[in-house]
Amino acid sequence: MGRENQTLMSEFILLGLSSFWETQVSLFVLFLAMYLVTMLGNFLIILLIRMDSRLNTPMYFFLSVLSFVDICYSNSIVPQMLVHFLSASKSIPFHSCLLQLSISLAVASTEFFLLGAMAYDRYVAVCHPLHYAAIMHGGLCLGLAAGCLVAGFMNSLMETIITFRLPLCHKVINHFACETLAVLRLACVDISFNKVMVAISGFLVIMLPCSLVLFSYGHIVAAILCIRSAQGRRKAFETCASHLTVVSMCFGAAIFTYMRPAAGSSAEQEKMVSLFYAVVTPMLNPLIYSLRNKEVMSALRRMLEKINEKR
């Protein structure tokens, strides 16, 4: 019976964040503004890094990849959510739900691996500055970025297959998007195996990069404390502060959502955390890296000066 239901399931209904029209309109305006800021900020970061030769370094290469990943992640979820705010029908076709889950999961997984690679880059920059250029050469940077992408999509493929192979007996998803934990609740069979696989995936995708980040920053802090001048310590810390802020947000939200016991979180809590990660974090990333980074702000000023000169 379950398999028949799954075969005949042509669409899902997303409950979203609210059933009140006034609230949905307010949320539409708010999230539309945040979405536009996200797109503008991340595209601007990519543009600055490509146009300014002073930013052609491994650190900014990884930052441009991070901005691209944030753009992809936001576009996989937010446009559909905005449409549903103003739509009476909040349905999503089965194939669209499958595609949304797989893409959002792939780019989110890629971002965690990428943050680990960025932590390694900062570790080499601070702990081995004389060998930085030799170690973090272009080939290694491209290899790390490609490896993060491949690992992210492999994790997504595995989770998507084992999730949608389940017989689904319900079509109402208590979420604003097709998300793994929300879709699993639709199953009419035991999902213990899926929960184990989600835990294993969470460990590989979240805890392994997080361990690399902690290892890297442990050595970075030790190296900074060995610097005698206060100015040198401050400069070394400034090169890592933006990345550390972003890491804290991303890993904190993900660990709260996926690494806690099932009994410890509700669907509403998961929606709020997912919303923070899908909407707020991609918007804040370019702001954090630009406002806290003198080189990025200098590049922005130089670009604005060139634009004014052409006028």
UniProtKB/TrEMBL annotation:
- Which Pfam families does the record match to this protein? 7tm_4
- Please give the PROSITE patterns that the UniProt record associates with this protein: G_PROTEIN_RECEP_F1_1, G_PROTEIN_RECEP_F1_2
All copies of the G-protein coupled receptors family 1 profile domain together span 41-289
Q: Where are the transmembrane segments?
A: 25-48, 60-78, 98-120, 132-154, 203-227, 239-260, 272-291
Membrane topology category:
Multi-pass membrane protein
Q: What is the annotated role of this protein in its UniProt record?
A: Putative odorant or sperm cell receptor.
Q: What is this protein called?
A: Olfactory receptor
